[in-house]
Automatic annotation (TrEMBL):
Sample GO molecular function, one term: peptidase activity
Record lineage: Bacteria, Bacillati, Bacillota, Bacilli, Bacillales
Residue ranges crossing the lipid bilayer per the database entry: 128-156, 192-219
Gene Ontology biological process terms from the UniProt entry: proteolysis
PANTHER family: MEMBRANE PROTEASE YUGP-RELATED (PTHR36434)
Species for this entry: Bacillus taeanensis
Top-rank lineage group of the source organism: Bacteria
The protein's name in its UniProt record: Zn-dependent protease
Length: 225
């Protein structure tokens, strides 16, 4: 029963989170923002208000491919959000600018996440290989090494949570303060941001569950020895 619940959580939670964000985005991308600003204009307005004149706003292909690139100092918005004038587009644009503001203010969790990137990449690429090899060879130390690699990736996922929630809070503060949205649009904007945050929560939950599973497996191997 425990394993069944584990696999249900592993499969259902991420799918549910993705469905929530797609549903919220689809719904509110059809709702025009009262300001009449496009996502690109929203991003530029918030950036300029915070003195981030050096940060560019660019269009990027794909759907919900929006992100902030701290190395190039660029806010990249998917075509629909870049050109669109919806509540959803404004929310996403403001969220990505939230990351640019974090970068400007040297936000500690953002810096920590950046520092974790090399270790997290190694963990994502090699942890399962090491763990599988350790299990097949009955070599517990190899499993332990894989778990340590995986732990780095899990820590990255956990540190991502405060980074994303903080960016969303900054986004809400900015769009309200600058009049990008009206009072009656705050609820809709927050729904888009909260739905997006769910995907990060789901990813972190799955990562933690996987790590716990392999830790228990490692303990079991040692007890057998």
């Amino acid at each position: 029963m425990g394993f069944l619940l584990y696999f249900v959580l592993l499969l259902v939670v991420p799918i549910w989170a993705q469905m929530k964000v797609k549903s919220a985005y689809k719904k509110y991308s059809q709702v025009p923002a009262s300001s009449g600003l496009s996502g690109a204009e929203v991003a530029r307005k918030i950036l300029d208000h915070n003195g981030l004149y050096n940060v560019r706003v660019e269009e990027v292909p794909g759907k919900l491919s929006d992100h902030y690139d701290p190395r190039s100092k660029v806010v990249r918005l998917s075509s629909q959000n870049y050109h669109g004038h919806s509540v959803a587009g404004a929310a996403v644009a403001a969220h990505e600018v939230g990351h640019a503001i974090q970068d400007q203010q040297d936000y500690s969790f953002l810096r920590f996440r950046h520092a974790l990137v090399p270790a997290a990449n190694l963990g994502s690429n090699f942890s399962f290989i090491l763990i599988l090899a350790g299990i097949l060879l009955s070599f517990a130390n190899l499993v332990l090494l894989g778990i340590l690699f995986m732990a780095a990736a899990v820590i990255f996922q956990l540190v991502t949570l405060p980074v994303e929630f903080n960016a969303s809070n900054r986004a809400m503060d900015q769009v309200v303060a600058l009049g990008v949205i009206r009072n009656d649009e705050e609820r809709e904007t927050r729904k888009v941001l909260n739905a997006a945050a769910l995907t990060y929560v789901a990813a972190a939950l799955v990562a933690v569950l996987e790590l716990v599973r392999f830790i228990l497996m490692f303990i079991g191997m040692n007890q057998e020895d």
